[in-house]
Amino acid sequence: MKGRILFLSLLILFECLSCRNSANKSGSFVFPEADSVPIGEAEKLSSEAIADISRNIASPVEIANLLQIINVPFSPDYLASSLDPNKQVTAFGKALSLGILGADLGFLNIYEKTGSSINILSSIGKLAEGISVGQFFNFEAIKRLSLNKSNLDSLLFLSVDSYSQIDKYLRDNDRGHLSALMIIGVWIEGQYLATQVVKQYPDKRLKERIGEQKIILNDLILLATPFCDRDKEFNELCKNLLEIKEKYKDIRITYTLGDPLSVEKDGALVITQTESSNVEMTEDQLSGVIEIISRIRNKLILSN
Amino acid sequence: MKKYLITLLFLFGTGVLLPGQSMDKQVSNCVMNTGSGAKYLKDFRVQLGEAPNPVDLRYRANISLWKNTKYRFTMCNYDESKGKLILSIKDEMNNVVLSSFDQKTGKIFPSIDFICNKTGIYQLNYDFINGQQGSGVGVVSMLK
Fold it and tell me: What percent of chain A shows pLDDT beyond 90?
């Protein structure tokens, strides 16, 4: 009888453990009061709406891929190397930095500069622990894949999956403001990367990608708005996003209509879109975007 | 007592007690099978019961797709699925841009390559063919 009870107890214990993330860290699940958002505030944007916005942000992997297509060589100068996770004292700074370094990690992964990513991985791990989401960041597995360059897809999957799990966990636990900060951090760093590169490599496709961010910017502002009055740091960030919006005000995106073309090739379907989008942006407007992104991003990595 | 512990270790060792990990494995298997040169971007894990009256595809999610990018959409079905996972993508004007199910021939494509020339927010619509019950994953990757 005793054995049966012990067996059932162990079974329940293992079931509970198996429901949690497979990462082997055992961080606390109790969060400080100051980290929680009042329910009414969090409800202004539903969890699903935030998830949608998160998916709409151009992945840093997509930007890095475009840089590779236009033959831009890797440069560590674009990375936020001066960002010290030990100096991030607020949850705001930690979450925003987590986003910034996530974008850098995507850049390093695509360029397969995985040896250099170990430092960034370590910083990401510290920042994630700092906002009690370290259990979702599978540091050891990502590090192992980084050092073993054979499987880029596994590395990309694990990196993105860790971030997605953190993002979902934060949203599901009334800490949507930290999820929003992470998403904004990813976007700002991705934009910084693209705008710094375009100064040296003024490729039309890259310029277009920078101009097209106008589509996403409104969503980002929507994401941040419920939290703008939360504290001074958030208020400042909201002002920064509005400054960026102002620079995008006169950039236009036009569309040309067309029907998609389908071709079956070796049993696979290939669709080419003939409808197209076109960005109308002057060099002055582009310079304005480059300047504002650089100023805000550099301020964020130094002050946070 | 010993037999209970052996049973427990067996269940733990075979993964019966780790359903989350098993699902992750099926997702990662799908990611690994998107083809050479495809770089993983996102995945959508779809789990649906049987639709009483199948009309529209039921699982919906928005995604931004960018001009000058070639995407690959791969659909994988888990072993327990009754139907095959299909995908249809609509643009902001609600026009169908692509579908992995050819209504004329009944053919289902397990993957589609899409050369995007219009940046925008698109709606991904997933379901299992004829509204059947199933679980699977849709992987979005990028081709160089």
Answer: 52
Q: Check if A273 contacts B (Cβ < 8 Å).
A: yes
- Residue A47, chain B, CB below 8 Å: the answer is no
Residue B43 confidence class, pLDDT cut points 50, 70, 90: very high
pLDDT band at A244 (very low <50, low <70, confident <90, very high): very high
Q: What pLDDT does A269 receive?
A: 94
Give dist(CA A128, CA A132) in Å, integer. Answer: 6
pTM of the complete model: 0.81
* pLDDT over 70 at A25, yes or no: no
Neighbours of A236 (CB within 10 A): 15
CB contact under 8 A, B113 and A262: no
Which chain A residues have a beta carbon less than 8 Å from that of B18? 18, 22
Q: CB of B79 within 8 Å of any CB in chain A?
A: no
> Where do the domains of chain A lie?
38-252+282-303
Three-state DSSP class for B137?
A: strand
Within 13 A of A209's CA, how many CA atoms are on the CB side?
31
For residue A109, give both structure tokens: 């992964």
What is the residue-wise DSSP string for A142-188? HHHHHHSTT-HHHHHHHHHHHHHHHHHHHHHTT-HHHHHHHHHHHHH
Task: Note whether B52 and B97 are within 8 A (CB).
Answer: no
Q: Which domains does chain B have, with CATH numbers?
A: 2-143 (2.60.120.380)
pLDDT tens-digit map of A271-297: 999 999 999 999 999 999 999 999 999
Which residue of B21, B36, B40, B59 is the best one to mutate when testing the A interface, meaning the one whose CB has the most A CBs within 10 A? B40
pLDDT at res. A183: 92
Q: What pLDDT was estimated at residue A51?
A: 73
Q: Which two tokens stand for residue A85?
A: 């996770």
In angstroms, the CA A154 to CA A146 distance is 10
Q: Does B31 touch chain A (CB under 8 A)?
A: yes
Mean pLDDT in residue range A208-221: 93
